Amino acid sequence: MAELENINPSVYKKTEERPLTENELNEDVVDPIDEREVFDLIRDINDPEHPLTLEELHVLEQSRVTVNNERGEVFVNFTPTIPHCSMATLIGLSIRVKLLRALPPRFKISVEITPGTHSSENAINKQLKDKERVAASLENSHLMQVVNECISITKQSQ
Amino acid sequence: MKFPWSTSIVDVLKNDNKLDEKLQEIVKALTHHKEDITQVVEELGPALTHKDVEIRLKGMEFLSDLLRSLPKDLLDEKALGFIVAFYCDRMKDHHSISPQVIIGLVAIIKMKNLPRSSPVLVLQQIFANIPCQTQVRGDRANIFTIIQYLSDNYQVELQAMGADFIYGVIQAVEGERDPRNLVFLFEFMPRFINTYPLRHLSEEMFEVFSCYFPIDFFPSPNDPQAITRDILAEKLSVCLCASKEFAENCFALALEKLETDVKVAKLDSLNLLIKAVTNFEPTSVLEKFDEIWQFMKLELLSGAKDKDVNETALAVISAVLKKFKSDQANSEIILNKIFTNTIGTLLNRDSNLYKPTMELVLKCANATDISCGYVINKVLPITLTDLTSNEELTVKEKCEVLEDFRQFMMIVGGKKLLAHYIGDNYILQIQKELMKVLMTPSSEDLTKVTCLVLQSMADIISDENRQIVYKSLKENLTRSTEEQRQCILAFAKVFPKEVRENVLESFLSRTYEDANKAKNVFATLSFLLEVSELRDSVIEVLSLNLFNNKNLQVQLVVLEVLNKVLSSENCHQLARILFDEWRIVIKLMDLIKNENPDEGQDVMYQASLVMSLVVRTLPNDQQMALVEKYLPLMKLNESIPDLYVTSGLLGFLDAAVPMEAHFETLVNELTKLSLHSNDEVVRKLANQLLCSLFNRAPIDDKHRKILRKIYDVIKEEVKKHNHQAVEILGWISKGLLARGHPDAAEILETLSELLDHPKLSKSAELAFEIISLEFPQLHLPLLKHFFKQRIFVLALKFLENKIEKYSEHHLTAMAHILQITPHQALKMNLEKVGPILFKCVQIDPEDPKPHSKRILLSLKIINNFIHDKNQYILNHLQHLVNDLLKLSQFKPSMDVRIMACKCLENITKYPLFTLVPYKSDVIHELTIPLDDHKRLVRNAAVSARMAWFLLGENDAAQSSK
């Protein structure tokens, strides 16, 4: 990448680790998959441009994640840092891939741009919704490398 | 005149191999003044002027050796003058002779009567005739030794040489490459530079050193002298700052090299800057500060950077400020330069640069008094106006502002100069803000931070505000948090009297009925035991509620508080006061004896613990006196409270206190109690005491006989299928094993055999668990090194042969032993242990019992080996991966499922080619735990599955780059 599109983004604090509750340690209580859990899965994805996580850049916020555990639906809105960000598709794809790998197969996953935050919002949403295109991009080894890097570097920084 | 050779000297040098002896003879003759050195030289003449270079070399060698062997004060001035002249003349000879000339000179110049004119002559001739850097390393070292010795001892003469001398030295030193010589030079040259004016050659001198900067050096692995890069770098930086004339060049050099990307070079440059700032004149520092700051700004305020570099850069700023620590005007110029452009970032808390800027502010405040004042007056108000004027600040942001302020207060607090600035209205404003929080508490976090801030500034809170603090603390005392307790402590340290009157008064000298309330109050009060002015009142109220209050719950609370306090590291003084002044041991004994054995069991147990903790801190003679006085009175078989008292007396008794007199009776009674009592707590106490007593008993015939007797009694009971007997065996063997007792093995073997017993196998399994567990209340005075290895070796010996027909009990017992065995010991025996471990983690679908504990223990051990990338485990991956996948869906225990996922995740660290065959299976199977009903299992499964997905992907990415 020759130049950074957004040179000095605002950086926000990370949310605290989810506190352990007694129920979570109790074998007999069922913990349903909730918004916080899904948010925890994706908040550490790295921004392709900066050494920062999507959470720190407020690309992802817990309030923009909705989960319906019974019906098996997950809906994530993400907000690009600037309206003409060319990385938006890549970010969306990374979120999608991470969720596909980390959530049980019974979930239907939708990833969309927060309405009104990107200049070519509809086009990108359409790309991310298109199963064929997502599947095709997963076959593209170069693209997968970039996505894997976004997903994996977080592991080292932990 | 008789020389010890008959033929000519030339022949002697050519053929004689006993030159050494002859040399010694001449040395002897010279020291006894039987001969004269000039004659010796004359005698050597034919050799020294021989036409063959070889012979001349040998002659010189002989002469130099001779001079080195002579006492330093033997030769007089005239003779030395003669020899020096001779040696100087020899330098013009063939180049192969010069090493010997140098060796001789090293000896000559150290002689006592050296003529004052000789040094100049020697150096002149060396500079003129011997190009130093073309010599081998050892000779160069000799030349440097000559220069160093002469320049240290003949300053006046050499200073008269003027620039020639400096120039000669520069020429000799320039281009030196050997690290050993460099260490020598770097140590000596700063002294040289300070003694001799460099005149017009200062820049040349600087160049001599600057070419090494930054040092790039890798010591050879088997270097005996172990010169490291850091040693060289440290010494070099001293040289670079040795002369005030280097200032200009030195700053330029450090700043130039800062631009590098190599971390060590950057750190070297920063360290050089620190040294330069400290050593050179303030004026030159001031001149250069603009440039320095530009670079530091780049290092400090441009996003994420290396931590070490960041810290060192801050240290540079700190060094600059310290340079001007008593120069108000210039300090302010510098601080203005630093903060004019950076202060803006402090207004935007979300900015990337907020944190580094805050760090800089704190560092500056910490540097000097002047800079601290500057920060208080000019910088902090900007950051803290938010707090006092911005109404829209969220609670979280407020907490952050206060936290920054607290860090600042910690620095100021350390400096003790606030009184100087305290008149400042704005510190009062901060106080007002803090008081607002206290009076109208809105959020827990905010109160917490406020307490922390107050704690850091306890000594400067104004009188009326203190009253508000006290009021708030008092109101919250019955439900106080850790922070509030710390806060009370901080104020109590400064104003003990006020705290007592305003906060504690109503809580002291009274008995409590409500145990919950008492719990919080006592927990807070126990913090104040540190403050000597309040200690007595606190102990008084505790003792009142323990001994004069019949409420069992409250008594229990007091005992628990005492327990906690006395378990901490530095309770020694308190324990002594409790023992000497409050006679707590005697009182506790009475308390236990008068307690109702049915209801007051918890109180008795806690009281005996407190007793043992106090006894522990006493000196041995006092411990002994207590035991001698009270132990004989105990009737263990008749009274339960006596058991608690005994436990309190002996619980943490020092190993050196002798027990022989009571040992047999005590052990017999305890065994009886433990064999026949139905009360579990009583049995536990008796067993622990037995364990501790057998652990400390000396290994002699008398005590072994006692042990044998007890053992026989227990064996009889075992035959009657008494489960308690097996339990006692477990405890006794635990005590014996820990000290490496010779009889321990036999008991362990009995226990191993009992694992096959139709009725007692379960108890035997428990006995193994007892051996493996650690009990905080159990005192084992004698611990042998490597006793855990010993237990493992013994257990393996007894159980190894039966591996084929292992029952569940065998596996569980073994798992307990393996759990305490050090990793290294397991590793050495992995061929034997491995099959057992694998067997432990296999689940039999037919088996109704879950065995979660055993599986979990074994999984943890396996995980450790996976972590080490152990080869043995790698060879067994095929079945292990399958077992782990099954365990990741193991219904009865979530801990097992989590551990199995962790193992699977760690397996991905093995080389890629060994894992590829399993990849698709693992990824597929792990979808099931992804939908586990427990969140923690799901988290572990996600990490494991992600790791398997990324298997090999990163390597591919790296290689393609």
Write up this protein.
- The complex is a heterodimer of chains A (158) and B (961).
- Chain A is an alpha+beta fold and 158 residues long.
- Chain A has one domain: Fe-S cluster assembly (FSCA) (GMP Synthetase, Chain A, domain 3).
- Chain A has helices at residues 22-25, 35-42, 88-102, 121-129, 131-139, 141-157; strands at 65-68, 73-78, 108-113.
- Chain A has a three-stranded mixed sheet.
- In chain A, helix 3 (88-102) packs parallel to helix 4 and helix 3 (88-102) crosses helix 6.
- Chain B is mainly alpha-helical and 961 residues long.
- Chain B starts with 8 loop residues before the first helix and ends with a helix.
- The interface between A and B is medium-sized, with 30 and 27 residues.
- Chain A: Belongs to the MIP18 family.
- Chain A: InterPro entries: FSCA_dom_sf, MIP18, MIP18-like.
Mind describing the biggest β-sheet of chain B?
Answer: none
Structural Rg of chain B: 41 Å
CATH topology of chain A: GMP Synthetase, Chain A, domain 3
The CATH first-level class of chain A comes to: Alpha Beta
- Tell how many strands the DSSP assignment of chain A holds: 3
What is the helix fraction of residues of chain B, given as a range? over 70%
Averaged pLDDT of chain B, please?
A: 83
Q: What's the pLDDT, averaged over the residues of chain A? A: 84
Low-confidence segments of chain B, given as residue ranges, are none
Please identify the oligomeric state: heterodimer
How do the strands and helices of this protein lay out in sequence?
The complex is a heterodimer of chains A (158) and B (961).
Chain A: H1 22-25, H2 35-42, E1 65-68, E2 73-78, H3 88-102, E3 108-113, H4 121-129, H5 131-139, H6 141-157
Parallel strand pairs in A: 2-3
Antiparallel strand pairs in A: 1-2
Chain B: H1 9-15, H2 19-31, H3 37-48, H4 53-69, H5 77-90, H6 98-109, H7 118-129, H8 137-153, H9 155-161, H10 163-173, H11 179-195, H12 202-210, H13 229-240, H14 247-257, H15 263-279, H16 282-300, H17 307-323, H18 328-342, H19 354-367, H20 369-389, H21 395-415, H22 418-421, H23 425-439, H24 444-456, H25 463-476, H26 482-494, H27 496-504, H28 515-527, H29 532-547, H30 552-567, H31 572-580, H32 584-594, H33 601-617, H34 620-630, H35 640-650, H36 660-676, H37 680-696, H38 701-719, H39 723-738, H40 744-754, H41 761-772, H42 787-799, H43 808-820, H44 823-828, H45 830-841, H46 852-867, H47 871-875, H48 877-887, H49 894-907, H50 912-925, H51 927-930, H52 935-949, H53 953-960
Helix pairs in contact in B: 2-4, 3-4, 4-6, 5-6, 5-7, 6-8, 7-10, 8-11, 11-13, 13-15, 14-15, 14-16, 15-17, 16-17, 16-18, 17-19, 18-20, 19-20, 19-21, 20-21, 20-23, 21-24, 23-25, 24-26, 25-27, 26-27, 28-30, 29-30, 30-33, 31-33, 32-33, 32-35, 33-35, 35-37, 36-37, 36-38, 37-39, 38-39, 39-40, 39-41, ...
